[in-house]
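S.,

As promised, the zinc ion run. Input:
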Amino acid sequence: MQPILQRTDKGFYCPPGDFYIDPYKPVDRAIITHAHADHARSGHRHYLTAADGFALLKHRMLASAQITPLPYAQSTNYHGVRISLHPAGHVLGSAQVRIEHKGQIAVITGDYKVEPDQTCAPFEPLNCHLIVSESTFALPIYQWQPQSILFDQINRWWATNQDQGLASVLMAYSLGKAQRLLAGIDPTIGPIYCHSAIEPINQIYRDSGIDLPQTLRATDPQRARSLVLAPPSALASPWMSRFRPFSTAFASGWMAVRSKRNRPSVDTGFVLSDHADWNGLISSIKASGAQEVWLTHGYSTALARYLREIGLDAKSVDTRFRDESSSAGHDPAGNPPDSIIPELKPAGEQ
Ligand SMILES: [Zn+2]
Ligand SMILES: [Zn+2]
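Predicted complex:
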């Protein structure tokens, strides 16, 4: 019998359905879990993605891309394989892919988090036989604090900077993290500016009905009291100079283990991630009821070892064969531990 899912040199492939999930190389049929660059690549003949993420994917792909939206929980059929998409709680429109064929069910989570996020639908637990889970932050040292604490810290940092006559420059991924920050901070503290890489994505979120505070163009004069949201790649750019003097911070799960050697050139770090932490990964995998677990991204080996100890058939699925030039952002697959802040590299911004 054909396996329901296979790892190939183009990415995860469903042989009976003849489609790929987040493929690395051009294919005929691609199901895209979300619009981050390390999952959504251009060049596929046909794309299927969650309806909530359709506008984001369209924004990131060429105008000619053939993209079919599929509402969460509705199903479609490729060669007798039933496909449905379910919220992953990672960014707007992020989806887990559930595939079912001859009684076998596999779920490919894509990136996910279990903590609620007011800018996207909450992660939906799914039952399956095989789960392919990301494992970006799969070490016991990664345990996220409740986001309310993080947003309090950020608000306080902003207010303190104001007292010192500084603007507050907060670095974050332009897709997802920036909007989650906007939705969570206290907009009454002062004016908010967004970099041009972030503002069009804010607009897509707003158009999708997500409530974000007002953001200003960088020509406005109230800069001294402002919060400035920018992608990490903007840190060294001339665009930043207009906000001087300022204090900088970076909001990322990687800030949890910032060592001196890896310290990015920012003044402060906030540990806010759009990925599941160690406990979130384990509880989600257990709740799926899957006996077979494939792990991708990050610290997959450590998590596979733990899951095997509790009786699951778990393995790390090597993704290092991927095209380095298009790999992006959070994914430290294959990265040695000393490059724990890959997203500070401009080329890797997702
Ligand atoms: Zn992602
Ligand atoms: Zn990813």
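Helices lie at 54-60, 147-163, 177-184, 199-207, 278-287, 300-309. The two ends are 38 Å apart (CA to CA).

- D.
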